[in-house]
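Lab notebook, page 48
Experiment: co-folding of the full assembly
Goal: obtain a model of how the components sit together before planning crosslinking
Operator: M.T.
Materials (sequences as entered):
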Amino acid sequence: MAKVIIDKMAMQRALTRITYEIIEKNKGIEDLVIVGIKTRGIYLAKRIANRLQQLENVEVPVGALDITKYRDDIEHDSAKETPTVVASGDRVSVEGKNVILVDDVLYTGRTIKAALSAISELGRPNSIRLAVLVDRGHRELPIRADFVGKNIPSAQNEKIQVSVQEIDKRDAVEIVNK
Amino acid sequence: MTKRYLILEDGSSYPGEAFGALATTTGEIIINSNMMGYQESITNPIYHNQIIVFTQPTIGNVGINHKSYESIVTSIKGVITREYSDTTLNHQHKQSLDTFLKQHEIPGIEGIDTRELAHRITKKGTMKASIVDVDDEHAFDQLNATVLTNQQVSQVATPKPYPNPGNGFNIIVIDFGLKQGILRRLDERDCNVVVVPWDTSVERILSLDPDGIVISTGPGNPADLPKSIIKTIQSLQTQFPLLAIGLGHELFAIANNAKVYKLETEHHGSNHPVRKIITNQVIYVSQAQGYAVDYDSIDRNTLITTYIDLYNGTVQGLRHRDYPAFSVQFSPDGEPGPTIASDIFDEFLENIGSQRR
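Observation: model returned without errors.
Model output:
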């Protein structure tokens, strides 16, 4: 059974609020770089960047981050690859920038730790802040998000499933009982 | 039926048939172009001391019901319509508009060419008008000599605080002559609401331990209110998530150094497309405004323009750059009119949730 906890409207509102909060906390959008983590974080990052452009008429660079290499919880053979933050073919520089890291779900914190390692290997940003659509708890590392769409206290055996229009043909966050 | 007259400051006179009370009244004349919801308009305190011309040709055909009141005190000065209809099959009907107007001593006139009248008001701008028995020279002299009050807020806003209990966030609504739609939307979201008078001090508001602040709609010119209100808003916006609506939006703008001007023709309707800038969506909303925020006066380092009217270019929404404080010119409760913008109340409550995280 899947239960919808964030519908399309609520997801739009959450991203809108996060966008405004980024402007609030960052005191403007100078030197801002938005970096989306792997699949869905990238689309959310793009949506936030679109909103910033609508409001401020400034194009904020969006990067996509693949953190597979840095995961300590997954066996992989991509260990020799160098991490990249790629935006439409060009590499995005994080040196001296204010980075907003975007992911769909914040869970153990291991993905974020991996993302932080990946970014620090690419340069030294002025600051890194974390935006997530859902914070479901159960952290295993001392990591917290600066911008949260919704806090969803969840049980370990529940699955939080985020769908985005761009690849899943609809916008929703659901709890699925395994 | 009794023949009576609507006379305008520009010297024109419109004869028609009376309904409602037979009182002689004077007020500012405005056009309302909503297709539905005359009860919401008639009972909205924003129309305090105004005579409403409905461009919808027939008024009265759904009577008056419990659910559509926007205030308990109705203080408009008249209802002008093409045709008054006493026939109703509406299931919520409790009494006729005629009876309601008689009870509240408000006169109405039907049989007036409201299209011509609306055209005249649009062309000449805001005017004084009277509903009278005889349209002689004396009546016009009286009309021209009448000075309308600019103390509308203190006449319609609550003089004392009152609660509307709920189990959710503690919301303080500062009442400048609020419409009940705002309270309904907060009630639906289970907020614990305390409505306080418009001149309540910051200290008093702090003592009520708010989670968030709503600055309500209301009648009249924001410039006629004392400067202490502006100081109150300046203080509150730094401390609590804030939502300002209508007159509240104009005050919020002034509190952040923007200017407000009087529209040549007031706009009351739900037919203007409004662009939500952040998502580039176009929505239709319920609008009722005599004033607007001057776009050029907005300090872009302090405020972000969030909504814009695509028909007349007026600013319909603002947000503070440094605090979770935002405002809309239109009525997000959508009474009367489209309810699409009612999730602005969710946006406000989610701002509170985010602060408390």
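Interpretation: The domain at 3-148 of chain B is CATH 3.50.30.20 (Glucose Oxidase; domain 1).
Next step: discuss with group before ordering constructs.
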